[in-house]
Specification:
Blueprint (H helix, E strand, L loop, with lengths): L5 H19 L3 H7 L4 H11 L4 H14 L4 H13 L3 H14 L3 H13 L3 H14 L4 H14 L3 H20 L5
């Protein structure tokens, strides 16, 4: 057991309490100057104070992720923000990082949505199925999304027709001389 000076720990707790009180009064910036490792203050600044300025939001995200690189709550909000900014590949990567050490059915649900929006429908369906296995209460929602995604995939006859057309065009292209 490593002994730490208790006075230092009490000082940290007092600073945190002071920052929380200031945050509750509505001053997230001042709260961050007192306690820089305050994820709720960053989230409030991004989603409530600077909600119309994506460039300012991105600067705050960079600062927050530098100070709190492993905070799963902050990462979850970051993936939500990336999804809102239509940066779905990045959102899926962040969600994958969180899932690696804190698997959670809702994270799988969000990851499935992100993957579906970037065109990785089959992988998204597998992720959603995994979410329904983790939390059976979400089964109906996941299956509804899986069925919607499955109906958007081409059927076997549509794929066969496309392959036949590509093969036929490939034969014709080979017979047509490239120079007159």
């Amino acid at each position: 057991i490593k002994k730490e000076p208790w006075e230092e720990q009490v000082g940290k707790v007092i600073k945190q309490k002071e920052a929380i009180e200031i945050f509750l009064k509505g001053d997230a910036k001042k709260a961050l100057t007192i306690w820089p490792r305050f994820p709720e203050a960053y989230i409030h600044l991004i989603f409530h104070v600077h909600h119309k300025d994506p460039y300012k939001q991105e600067d705050i995200w960079k600062e927050a992720c530098k100070i709190l690189p492993d905070n799963s709550r902050l990462k979850m909000y970051f993936s939500t923000w990336l999804w809102q900014m239509q940066r779905n590949e990045e959102a899926a990567k962040v969600l994958q990082e969180i899932i690696a050490y804190k698997p959670h059915a809702e994270l799988y649900l969000w990851m499935g949505r992100s993957l579906a929006e970037i065109g990785q429908v089959e992988q998204a369906m597998n992720i959603l199925y995994k979410a329904s296995e983790i939390n059976p209460i979400m089964w109906v929602e996941c299956m509804r999304k899986i069925c919607a995604m499955a109906s958007s995939l081409p059927t076997w006859d549509e794929r066969a027709l496309a392959e036949l057309q590509n093969a036929s065009l490939g034969d014709l292209r080979a017979k047509i001389p490239s120079q007159p």
